[in-house]
């Protein structure tokens, strides 16, 4: 856990637990998705639905910039935001008492998330994929002053190798970003 522990109870942030990352037929499916969701469910029960936030990536970015090339490279993902590909998986739909935080960006730290958790929160960061949306969320949140604990075994990488590289990078940002496990996070006091 963080070496400088924040005083407030942590918020569990579950990054993008969507069908596009879970469905084995998707080009973006993580082979670790199901086992990670089991750990996320335990963490969600521990912190409670009032302190759990779930995000979704939606393909709504302006195509005039670099997103144009992105969607040219990944045309299967260039469908309307209402497409079932972007639905939350069943277990994720029950994690939070709040609506999902939907963003057109890889990183999910922004005004919507900060409005709920405050300026300097303690985040338990989980989700998919370790080497993309989790990584960019962790670094942006830390830059904004959040205490970020990346729950390593509750993050689903695109591949084991890519996940290890992403964790190595995030580990360079201590003490703002710490690497922890679900077992360690579950030993911390739950929200009051």
TrEMBL record:
- Please give the start and end residues of each transmembrane region: none
User: What keywords is this UniProt entry annotated with?
Assistant: Hydrolase
Q: Which GO terms describe its molecular function?
A: hydrolase activity
> Which stretch is the leader sequence?
none
The residues covered by the Isochorismatase-like domain are: 11-174
Gene3D superfamilies in the record? Isochorismatase-like
Q: Which Pfam families match?
A: Isochorismatase
> What is the protein name stated in its UniProt record?
Nicotinamidase
The species this protein belongs to is Brachybacterium endophyticum
